[in-house]
Structures are given as C-alpha cells and as structure tokens.
Design goal:
Strand content of chain B: 15-25%
Largest sheet of chain C: 5 strands, mixed
Distance between the termini of chain C: 56 Å
Oligomer: heterotrimer
Low-confidence stretches of chain B: 540-546
Structural class of chain B: alpha/beta
Number of strands of chain B: 21
Mean pLDDT of chain B: 91
Shape of chain B: globular
Largest interface: A-B, 58 and 58 residues
CATH architecture of the largest domain in chain C: 3-Layer(aba) Sandwich
Chains: A alpha+beta (about 290), B alpha/beta (about 550), C alpha/beta (about 575)
Number of domains of chain B: 3
Largest sheet of chain B: 6 strands, mixed, barrel
Helix content of chain B: 25-40%
Number of helices of chain C: 22
Number of strands of chain C: 14
Structural class of chain C: alpha/beta
Distance between the termini of chain B: 51 Å
CATH superfamily of the largest domain in chain B: Dimethylsulfoxide Reductase, domain 2
C-alpha cells in the first residue's frame, strides 16, 4: 500500500512536478497544466486504457505508456510531446476517424487538428478502408444506439456494469474490428436486462448511444447546443438527493445529466432521474 | 431514540461497511443511486443480508436472503438480539456507558429463541443465527430500511427493534456503522427538518418547549399555538368524526394514495371546503372547491431539499412555470395577504436565512456554502462547521457529551393487524417499481420500455391451485373492496404471498385493497399487509401463448 | 455481480445434461428453502471460471451455443447473459448461430506452413464430400501440413493425423544427447509406471531435498529463460512468487501454443505428459503455490486427453492432492481448454480467459508474479520451459550450463516446417547455426533457391539466406534484428509468392486481434488492407510503404500487449528484405 500522504516527484517535459503518491501520470500532467487527449478515460470510471490516445513516453519503458492508468513513480521521466508520442496520438486519431463517424465527438476534433491527423488516407480507389458500417438501432422511445459512431471505448459497458449500474445489459461481443457493444444475441434493449438508467449515454464520448429526444432534435435540425443552458438541481423521485443537470433549450428541458464529481451520484442516475422530467412540460402540464 | 430524526450515516459509509442488513427495503428499485453506494460496498467485500418477504431485485444481490413472513420483523429482530447476547457478542462497554434498560431488554427478548423466530417468521433458525453473528462481529455494520419497516400498524416499534440491535453492538455513532431510513421523496427529510410535523418547530425543536416557543414567537412576532397538531391519518379520523370540515392539501394526492382509498374519498367528498395546491389536476384536485396551480419544486423553483443522508442541497429553477402556475411560497404569501397579514415579498434565500437564524442545526448552511460544497449534512452549527457525515458520535464519548444515555426499547411481536382468514387467505404486500413513482401522476408521463402495469405477482403453486395462468385476468378482493388485475407468476415469491405496485390508480385502484389500520405513533397505515382473495374471472380463458 | 435478467429461452435436456456433466450442478445461488436463498458475490466469483468449460459443453452438445443454453449457464453461474455472450463470441470454436447442417466441422489450416501445401485442394475435397469446413489459423501440426482438426458435434473432437500410426515419433529418435525430448518414443505416455521406470518423479524427489528456496536458486543459477518468446528469466519469476505470502498462489502451464509454425509443446504434451505434470508440481513446490492450472488450446484434443489421464493417474498415486508426493504441501492441477484465440497465449489474456472473461490482455505492470490469475501471485511457464526446469533440478545448474552459450545456456526446441526435408521438432544446443538446423532437418525442398526463413513465427521476422551462419542464441538473433521466439524455423524458396504469405500473416493478425486497443484493432486491419492493395494493384508505392511504416510503428509503440507490438514485425522484415516486390 502506498502511503496516501506521500509525495512523488517526477519530471514531465523537463519540468519537475510534485504530486501525491498514487496519482496517475494523466493527473500529474493536469497538475502541470499539460493537456492530454483522452477518450476512454472518465472521472467516474475505472481506467481501461484501451484507446491509447493518452500515451506518453516514459524513460526506461520500451513501449509507450497509457497515462490514464499508470501511476507516477519517484523520479520518473515523462515526455508528452516527443515525436513517438505525437505519432501514436495522431495515428490513433486517424485510425478512429478512418472507421468511425466522429461528427459528434466534439472533444476529439481539436486534437485531430492539433496532431494533423489525416482521416482519409486509408481509402484507395476501389479498395475503401473498412468502417463500422452500422445503422442506428431505434428500439424504444428513450434511447438510440448508433454504432457507426462507436469507438469501442468500453465506457458504456463499464457504466452499465462494474463501475456503476451492475446491470450488464451490454457487453463487448465479437473480436477485433468486428467487436461490437451488444446485448446477448443482439436482442433489442427492451428485451434485454436494460433498465434505462441512461448511464451509458452519460459517459458516451461520441454520441453512439444517445437520448432519443436529442437524436430526434438533431435529425430535425433543432439541436442547438449554443442556445442551451444547464441548471443543477435535485431529483424529486426519491430521497437520495441526486443532483440533476437540466439542459434546457427555448425554456424546455431537452436532456438530463448529472455532475461526475458529486458525492451522491458520481454522474450516474436512474430511469426516473433521466426521464422523469417529461411531465414538467406540455402536453402533461399546460 | 437518539434525538433528531434522520439517517445516522453518509452514503460513503455504506461503501466501507463490512456487513449490511437491508431490511424491508427494495433500494435497487426505489433508491437506485443509493444502491450504487451499496454495490460499491459489496464490490469491496461487504456481506449483505436482505430481510424482505419478497426476494426483490435488491435481495438478489444478497449473500443471504431471509424471506420472513410479512409483519414478523420484530420477532426476527428480537431473536437476533437474543442470539447476540447468548453468544456473548454484545458490546458490554458500549452498553454500560451509552445505554439504559439493557437488563429489561435482555429479559424481554429471552423467549425469542432462534427456533421460536423460525416458527414466527418462517426463516430457518440457522440463517437468523448467522446474520446475528455477522452483524455483531463486524467492525462496521449498517442497518438500512424503508417502508417495509414503516408501513405497518406498529411502524415505530419496528424501527425501535432495529435500533436496539445497533445499541447492543455499538453499531451507531461511529464511521461506517449506523441506522439509515431511506426517504421516499426528495424532501421527506427536509419537510420534517423544517417543522412540517404536528409537534415540532423547524430543527426538531419541540413546540411545547417554552424556550423554543419564546424564540419562535419573538421571531415571527405572533403568539404560537403550543398544542400538537394532527398528522395525516388523524386528520382523516377527524374528518370521519366531523371535527375537521375544511382541508388545504399541498402537493399530495390522498384520493389515490391513502390506504382504504374508498373511505378516504368518501371523507374528502364530505368536507365543507377542499383546497388543493398542486402542479397537476390530480384526482384530489378534481374533487376540490379551489385549485391553486403550483410550480414544480425541483425544476421551476429556487430553494433547498434535504436527502436521506441529511444533506441539504439547492434546487434551482431551470424553466419557467407554465400558465398561471405560481411558486408555493408566493401562493402562501398571497393567501396571507388576503387574510390580512403582509409577509412582504421574501425570496427563497431570505426564507432560508430566517430558518438558519432559528434552527441551530442549519445555522452554518449559507447558500454560498451549499453551492461550494455540493450540499452540507446537518447538523452544521456555524459557518466554519464542516457538516456532519454521521450522527451520535457522543455515544462513544466518555461523558456522552453531557447527554442522557440511549434507552433500549421493549418491542413486541404482534404480526399484521389483518390476519389471514378462510375468506381472504392470501397476503398482499405492495411496493415501488423502478421506473414509476407513487400514484404515477409524474412518472407515467414518459414512455418506459420496462414498465409493466397492473399485474399482481403470485407464487406458481398458489396460482396452480387456483387454476390461474401467467397473464390471466383475476379479481382481487380484500375486506374493503375488489379490483381486476393481471397475474404475473413469480417463482421466487413464497407461497401465500402476493405483491403489486400502486403506480397506476387509473388502471387498478390498489389502495382499494390496502388496510388503513395505522400506527398511533407515526400515523402510517399498514400498506404492507392486507389479506386478499384471488379469483379467476369467469369467461377469461387461459391464454396459452401468455 | 448483477440482478440477472434472463430471457425467455430455455435449454433442452441435452444441453442441461452436457453442462451438468462438465461443471456439476452446484449453482451460484442456492434456494435452501422458500424463504432462504444463499447467493452473493463471493459464490459467483468462485464459479465464474467454469464459464468456459460450460460453453464448451454446449458447443459440443449441439454444434452451437443456443440462446436457451446460454441462459441456462448464465443462470447457473450467475453470469449476465450479455457478458456470457461476449465471452462466447470471442472464441473461434464457438458458434452462436444455428448451423444449417449437423455433423462435425473440419478445421483446415490456412497459415504459412499449410498455405504452401495443397490445403485448398483438401478444403475442396471435404466440401465436395458434403463436409463442413472452417478455414482455421495455424493448428500446430505444421510438420504434417496441410493440417486438419475435426470439431465434433455430440462427440469428441479429434485430429485425423493422430489416428495414423507413425513409427518414428520424432526425427531425432534415439539420439542420446537429447535432454528435453529424451522420453519421447521411450516412455508410454499413458502409463505413470512407465514414466517412473524411466526416471520419472526423481526430479521432484530431488526438489524436496533441495527445498523450495534451493530449487529457485538452482533455476536462477541455471540461467533458464522462458521459451514462449519473451525469454524472461524463469528463476526470477519463481522467486518473486515464492516471496509472496498469505495469499493463494498459482502456477500455470501455458499450453495455448498458437504461434503460427509452432508445435513443440504439442509434441511434448502428447508424448511426455507426466513430465509436464511433474514439472508443474516442482514449480508449485518451489513457489509455494497450491493451485496448478493447465490452459491448453482447444485444437489439441490428444494432448488434452493425455494430460487429463496423466493428472488422474498422478492423483491416484498421491502425487497430486493434499500432500502432493510427500512434499507436505497441497497441490493439485486443473485443466482448462481454450476455444480458439491466439491472444490467449498472452499470459494476462490467458488469465482472463481462464477466469471466464473475454481473453483480453491487461496492462502490465502489475505483473503476474503479484497480480496474476484471479489477481493473485502466479508463475506462468510454457511446457518447454517447465521441462527444462526438471533438467535443472535433476542435474544441477552447472551441468545445465555446460550446454549452450554463456547467455543462452541449455538446449532449444525448434519447430522446423515449411519447405524442408524432414519437418518436425528438433532439440539443438543454443549456438547451433541456422544452416546446421536446416541441414539437420534434411535441407530445403523444391527445385529453387532459399529465399527466406521465417524465424519465431508470425510474430517473428524473416531472414534471408545470408543468415544461415547465424548461431541460434538469444544474443545473436537479437543482434541480427530477429528472434528465436517460440522456436519456429520455416524456410521458403524463391518459388513461393512471399507477398501472398505476407498478406496471410497480416490477415492472421487482423483476425486474431482481440479488438481491445485502437492501435491493434484498427492497425491490423489497415496493414492487411494495404497489403491487399499492394497485391491487387501490384503497386508497392512509396506512399504505401510510408503508411505501413506508420501503422507498424503505432502498433509497436502504443498497443497494450505483445500481439500488437509484433503484428508488423514479419511484414517489416519482408519489406526490408525485398520479399514484397513492387511488381509481383
């Protein structure tokens, strides 16, 4: 066990950084004001370090190291902007962009520019690069799943399973490029264990799992993030005290999330918290 | 028993407890995000015992499910207490220092042997013994409960029988151990804290305490009534006796939610004046002489609510109320003005600051601090006070912080008021579904793919005996009335027990069946234990395709 | 742990009986009475590792895993159906859709050693006769290419070649210098008595004399390093596990031999199974582990049977059990069959697979010696390494070091196949040159000149004819930018279309990537696509060369595990040697 009070000193990009023992390299970079791209990492989930977009170079390590999952060590020497690091980050972004629809992965767009990733260079005349090639699954009134946007970051699986909900309605199935997020035998969500907590949606970084309200508004061209505001309040459906972030547009609630850093929810809600707002507005109340 | 009414522990503590007794609570469905904390505890290796007549979705996570007979909780609790003492696992130092009445308690629970408990509860003796040993031997242990404990005619006794166990083992007043009643609405805790109790001022100050009275009279500038008021159930009694003739209902739907709802409706109809302030035209509002359209507290109003871990948090207005709807405090202020009193035009924050000046346990909770800290747990005595993750630490202080030791309570097993008879041979108990809420006026507004409506759950053998198949329509009758329902056969349900929710009064008036026998101390009706008869509806054939 | 939701499909009697026969009927949730149910996370956790055997039972019973069968297993083990499906769909040997016809499926290898034989004719022949064929990655029978494996339905799996009686077991039969292969052809692999007659179990006796520390010391001094490819010092591994206290510990034999071109462990397991059991017992004794596991690839039915039989005999003789062989130490061994996944040869993926999860590797650190199987300290070795350890214990480190070189002591098993006179497993001293090995194995066949030798398998590299003088040691191969890897030596003459070989290697990695990390999941696809483009357009353009360089680099730099790290190495070496030509 590491002593929680101990401090570790390391060097990141030539700068000396002091952080508590057990801190991840990613968090140490944050402390040193160094931005790191992340995709599969989230504050409220256990790192799975599968996307590899946050890799850094650590002296003495043959391969690059996922900064989200590796704890700092005394006198570690970390490079976050070496040629190898830039190359790997660029390639990971190119790989994702060449096979997946990243149009709603807002956070990645900046990094694609930053590293100069060329998402189109894998297509050859007559020999197109393989893509996810999935159609949206619309199976109920609450969710849609558009796996053409799925980067297989495992976040939804974690939120549905070990890290929050423990429902395990979805898991990774298949292998390699054919791996997909799926229910058993790909049964529809209403026929699966899903309890519609929406925690998968809460953590999805690319819009591959979406609230149907948002999907419908986007389809209709009515989704305007720039005109939306977020108000934090408390859910009324039981006495636990879950914080809700009500996303509103034109004085209507359009989506509900929860702050990932709040002690009660850690960003996770139940079906009533996610969808119980419906009655607040017409047609239920006029 | 220990003073102010509130869960003693923080959710975080559940994550670190070694043993958890989930007693009469289906938190997985009714308090899903609290259950996440419990799941963390289980992932950390906690051992969980679920005490519930039903193997609910929560109980399915348990290491041991003890499926006691409805209403036999006290027999089980007393047997656990007896076994702990018999095995010498009680905390002698804690009992000596922090409690009174142990010898009486010991003598009182002595007849509740494990074998006797097995006879009364139906749960095998060895499992009761195991739970007793696990609870008493753990470094940290929690007892969590909900309406399975409190919706009985002897609710307070049920609660006290559990408190006895914590007192016996020292599992209260320290980090990781505690007693937590989970609240059903976002401000049940806050309502009580604010004095919405017949005998309390805000902050659990007694109305007959002259000092408190003086303080509130001077703050409010008017003399205050020192007679305790009536709780909901007594109000209906008084309506029956004709001593209450007018009723002002704010945000409650008794015409659907009261036990023996037929009787409740009759009484509401008999009133001279019924005023309803609500966000919907509920069934109660439809009966009203005056309806005051209100705003949605958590989405259209500013203010605070208090959770099951005593955390006071801000609610905020995200959208404007529709039409003529107004905020509750404005409606009340306006009403006062029409009655000739001018309360001015205070903001929610002004009202909160007034409360802070009168309720010491809230004194340190400025809006600013609530914002910064993501809520604070009472008591929070001044602006430097960090709030209180757990209560009753004084029980572990040598001088008890100058307080009186906590008394053991004498609790007797009685069983449900309504015994099973030949005419009504099945037990009906009720509970919440994951995607629904109370009488459904709010939750039925969204289209839930996992919603099932008006089914009654039955044991397969019972159904077989009555020749009833899964999905078949049946008539369910109690001594108070009859309703038609669909049957869902549940292999896990013990024989003789049936279960339903109460979220769809338009489809099924479940509360036509429930018993309004109530606890004189808490005013809660015995929703959890009615006796019923189930009959096939003539002509309704069994649909083999289900 | 979940509040399981099980769908409406039910298993039939055949499926239920098959599962019960495989894993018993002690469910994770016990309904003791109508009012008492025992369940909980600990019980589920303890049973999860039975998932893979249960899935095997379903597959064999019906030729596929039906929704009802999956539900039955999910309920029994309390594994959420979506997870169980995720696990089942990970493996090549499991089908999740109902086959159109009954009967066994013949797996025919399409990897390098078989690719250059008439394997396509064989496939056509089987299909013409109405048989079902699955085009399979390397089946570990390269010395008898084209390789076949028959997956049974309602009956056992088998390998047709196993039914052919072959007089000469190994090419070096009777060579008195053999250390690792000495028992083969001499000891009856089905008889413990025969094994003991030929000196079996004297190494364990010696180990008890030495004490567990003494054994670790001897293995450290011997300089023995792992023979799976990574060449980690075995003694260090054992010492690290031995140093762990107060937790359950494990020793695992990694018998998931799946590197294309590799079959040495199969030969050991089939012909000298008792030696592996004895060696694993020694490892358990040395490390203080009570639990031994054998994880063997699903396509090795004979080896599985032989090991199972050997374990039963040893248990019956008290060599395994509460006081294993009088060590005063409890030790027993369980066998788990893989189900067709190259990645499960990676040690952390193997643990995940054995535990009942998808065979996805974990990041290291932490290493298996502290966080291995079930998160507990684990020493994992392959059969060749284990047999070496027996030799060390029996004859001492000094004697062991008398063979091989200073940095590569001992002997090495080589899997020689491809265009070679006498394909098979060869044992040579470290330091023997590549040319000597090829001569020993009968020289190259075909009418043309040697073009390249694939060293170390698909994860290895090609070397050209100029490397024939290379001494086969860890240090020399490293110096020359190649690897011994798992001991693959596969020569090709210039009549072979090496671009086609490289396309297949890239397809192999594309199919075998677990899909967890982006560099490997997408990189193996892009590499394969680019090679196909080169093949189809006959165009090795500078742009494609750059692209393959970029893809290879990110896979090597940023993948989670060795599969991704090495997925481009053979291709890179082929490019460097000019084996992939601009115009083919």
């Amino acid at each position: 066990m590491t002593d929680p009070k101990a401090t570790v000193s390391l060097t990141i990009d030539g700068r000396r950084v002091h952080v508590p023992a057990g801190t991840s390299i990613h968090k140490a970079c944050e402390a040193a004001n160094i931005d790191t791209p992340t995709l599969c990492w989230a504050e409220n989930l256990t790192p799975v370090n599968v996307c590899r977009v946050c890799v850094v170079e650590v002296e003495g390590s043959r391969a690059l190291v996922p900064s989200c999952a590796r704890a700092v060590e005394e006198d570690m020497i970390v490079e976050t902007d070496s040629e190898r690091v830039r190359h790997s980050r660029k390639m990971v972004l190119e790989f994702l962009g060449s096979g997946v629809d990243l149009s709603q992965a807002d956070e990645l767009a900046e990094w694609v520019d930053h590293y100069g990733a060329d998402l189109d260079r894998y297509d050859q005349p007559g020999l197109p690069a393989q893509r996810m090639n999935e159609k949206p699954k619309i199976q109920d009134d609450l969710y849609i799943r558009d796996y053409d946007k799925c980067v297989l970051c495992y976040k939804c699986v974690e939120a549905c399973g070990d890290d929050a909900q423990h429902t395990y309605a979805i898991a990774v199935s298949g292998r390699g490029f054919d791996a997909r997020i799926s229910t058993e035998f790909d049964v529809t969500l209403p026929d699966s264990a899903c309890v519609y907590c929406g925690n998968c949606i809460g953590v999805c970084p690319t819009g591959a799992i979406q609230f149907k309200t948002e999907f419908d508004m986007r389809e209709a061209g009515e989704w305007r993030p720039e005109d939306q505001s977020v108000t934090t309040t408390v859910c009324s459906f039981c006495g636990v005290g879950c914080n809700l972030e009500l996303h509103t547009q034109d004085d209507r609630i359009v989506k509900v999330t929860s702050p990932t850093d709040h002690s009660v929810t850690q960003g996770h809600l139940c079906i009533k918290g996610r969808f119980g707002w419906t009655y607040v507005q017409p047609p239920k109340r006029r | 028993m220990f003073g102010a009414g509130g869960g003693t522990s923080s959710y975080r503590e559940i994550e670190e407890a070694e043993v958890v007794l989930l007693w009469g609570s289906n938190a997985r469905d009714a308090h899903p995000i609290f259950f996440h904390h419990l799941l963390k505890g289980l992932d950390n290796g906690a051992r969980m015992y679920a005490v519930d007549p039903r193997r609910s979705s929560s109980a399915k996570f348990a290491d041991v499910w003890l499926g006691l007979e409805v209403g036999s909780d006290i027999a089980l609790a007393n047997a656990v207490g007896r076994e702990i003492i018999a095995a010498g696992l009680h905390d002698r130092d804690f009992i000596e220092r922090s409690s009174t009445g142990f010898e009486n308690y010991r003598a009182h629970v002595d007849p509740y042997t494990l074998e006797e408990a097995e006879r009364l509860t139906g749960v095998p003796a060895h499992a009761i013994g195991e739970m007793a040993h696990a609870y008493a031997s753990a470094e940290t242990a929690q007892i969590l409960w909900t309406l399975g404990i409190t919706e009985h005619h002897n609710a307070v006794e049920n609660v006290l029988s559990l408190c006895n166990l914590a007192l016996l083992t020292g599992h209260v007043g320290k980090w990781g151990s505690g007693l937590v009643p989970l609240r059903g609405q976002n401000n049940v805790q806050g309502g009580g804290d604010m004095g919405a109790l017949p005998n309390k001022f805000p902050g659990f100050q007694d109305i007959d305490d002259p000092e408190a009275q003086a303080k509130f009279q001077s703050a409010y500038g008017v003399p205050l009534n020192d007679m305790p008021g009536l709780h909901l159930t007594l109000m209906f009694e008084a309506m029956g006796q004709g001593t209450i003739k007018g009723l002002y209902v704010i945000g409650e739907n008794p015409a659907d939610s009261e036990a023996d709802v037929e009787r409740a409706r009759k009484l509401l109809k008999g009133l001279d004046l019924l005023v309803v302030q609500d966000i919907f035209m509920t069934r109660t509002a439809e009966m009203a002489d005056v309806v005051l359209p209100a705003s949605v507290g958590w989405a259209e109003c500013e203010g605070t609510v208090t959770s099951s871990e005593r955390r006071v948090q801000r609610v905020r207005a995200a959208v404007p109320p529709p039409g003529e709807c107004r905020h509750d405090h404005e409606i009340l202020g306006e009403l006062a003005r029409r009655l000739g009193v001018n309360w001015g035009d205070p903001s929610p924050q002004d009202l909160w600051d007034e409360l802070r000046s009168l309720s010491p346990m809230h004194a340190g909770m400025s809006y600013e601090r609530l914002e910064e800290a993501g809520g604070l747990q009472w008591p929070c005595l001044d602006l430097e006070h960090p709030g209180s993750p757990f209560l009753h630490g004084w029980l572990y202080e040598e001088d008890l912080g100058g307080r009186q030791p906590a008394p053991f309570s004498i609790t007797n097993y009685e069983g449900p008021k309504e015994q099973l008879t030949e005419e009504f041979p099945l037990r009906l108990t009720t509970g919440r579904a994951l995607d629904s809420y109370n009488t459904g006026v709010q939750s039925n507004a969204f289209s839930s793919p996992i919603r099932y409506g008006d089914e009654i759950d039955m044991n397969p053998d019972d159904a077989n005996r009555l020749g009833i198949g899964d999905g078949e329509r049946v008539l369910v009758s109690s001594p108070r009335g009859s309703v038609e329902m669909g049957v869902r056969i549940q292999a896990d349900l013990p024989q003789g027990l049936t279960f339903t929710t109460f979220h769809f009064p338009e489809l099924v008036d479940t509360n036509m069946l429930t018993n309004d026998e109530w606890d004189p101390r808490s005013g809660t009706a015995e929703f959890k234990a009615a006796s019923v008869r189930i009959e096939k509806i003539a002509g309704a054939g069994f649909d083999a395709d289900g | 742990m979940a509040d399981l939701f099980i769908g409406p499909d039910y298993a039939d009697g055949v499926e239920i009986a098959a599962v019960t026969a495989a894993i018993g009927d002690d469910p994770a949730v016990v309904h003791e009475t109508e009012r008492l149910v025992i369940g909980g996370g600990a019980r589920r956790h303890e049973r999860r590792h039975l998932l893979l055997p249960a899935l095997h039972a379903l597959q064999r019973a019906k030729g596929w895993i039906s929704p009802g069968g999956l539900n039955h297993v999910s309920e029994l083990l309390q594994v959420p159906p979506a997870e169980a499906y995720g696990v089942a769909s990970f493996y090549e040997m499991f089908r999740l859709d109902e086959p159109e016809s009954d009967g066994a499926v013949t797996h025919v290898c399409v990897d390098a050693a078989c690719q250059i034989t008439a394997n396509e004719d064989l496939i056509a022949e089987i299909e013409a006769a109405g048989g079902r064929v699955h085009r399979s990655p390397c089946l570990g029978q390269c010395e008898r290419a084209p390789a076949r494996f028959v997956q049974g339905v309602g009956g056992p799996d088998h390998v047709p070649a196993d039914e052919v009686v072959v007089e000469r077991k190994i090419p070096q039969q009777g060579d008195s210098a053999l250390r690792l292969l000495k028992n083969i052809g001499l000891v009856d692999p089905t008889s413990l008595a025969s094994y003991r007659q030929h000196g079996g179990y004297t190494a364990l006796e010696r180990a008890i004399e030495l004490g567990s520390e003494g054994v670790c010391d001897a293995v450290v001094e011997s300089g023995l390093s792992g023979r799976g490819g990574a060449a980690f010092p075995t003694g260090q591994k054992w010492r690290a596990v031995a140093a762990e206290r107060d937790r359950p510990k494990h020793v695992v034999a990694n018998c998931d031999e799946s590197e294309p071109g590799t079959f040495k462990d199969r030969v050991l397991m089939e012909n000298d199974p008792f030696a592996i059991i004895e060696a694993l017992t020694v490892a358990g004794f040395a490390t203080g582990a009570e639990n031994g596991w054998i994880y063997i690839r699903g396509e090795y039915p004979l080896a599985t049977d032989r090991l199972r039989h050997a374990i039963d005999q040893c248990r019956g003789a008290g060599l395994l059990g509460a006081d294993a062989a009088g060590t005063g130490h409890a030790f027993d061994i369980e066998i788990r069959r893989g189900a067709g996944a190259y990645i499960c040869g990676e040690e952390t993926a193997l643990f995940a697979s054995l535990e009942g999860f998808r065979g996805e590797p974990r990041s290291k650190p932490p290493f298996p010696t502290t966080h291995g199987l079930f998160g507990e300290p684990t020493a994992i070795n392959n059969p060749e390494t284990l047999i070496n350890a027996l030799d060390v214990v029996l004859h001492g480190a000094a004697e062991y070091r008398s063979r091989g070189t200073e940095q590569s002591p001992g002997t090495k098993l080589l899997c020689v196949s491809g265009q070679i006179g006498r394909p098979g497993v060869y044992e040579v001293e470290f330091g023997t040159t590549l040319g000597q090995v090829i001569d020993l194995a009968g020289g190259i066949t075909g009418s043309r000149n040697l073009a390249a030798v694939l060293m170390g398998g698909a994860a290895g590299t090609f070397v050209g004819p100029e490397a024939l003088d290379m001494p086969l040691t860890l240090e020399d191969t490293r110096k020359r930018g190649t690897t011994l890897g798992s001991g693959v030596v596969m020569p090709f003459t210039d009549e072979i279309d090496m671009t086609a070989i490289c396309v297949r290697i890239s397809e192999f990695f594309r199919n075998e990537s677990c899909g967890q990390c982006v560099p490997c999941r997408v990189g193996t696809v892009r590499q394969n696509e680019t090679l196909v483009q080169i093949q189809r357009t006959r165009g090795l353009t500078a742009q494609r060369r750059d692209l393959m360089g970029d893809v290879g680099q990110v896979m090597a730099d940023a993948s989670i595990c060795g599969l991704g790290h090495t997925a481009a190495s053979a291709i890179n070496s082929a490019l460097a040697l000019g084996l992939i030509r601009e115009a083919v």
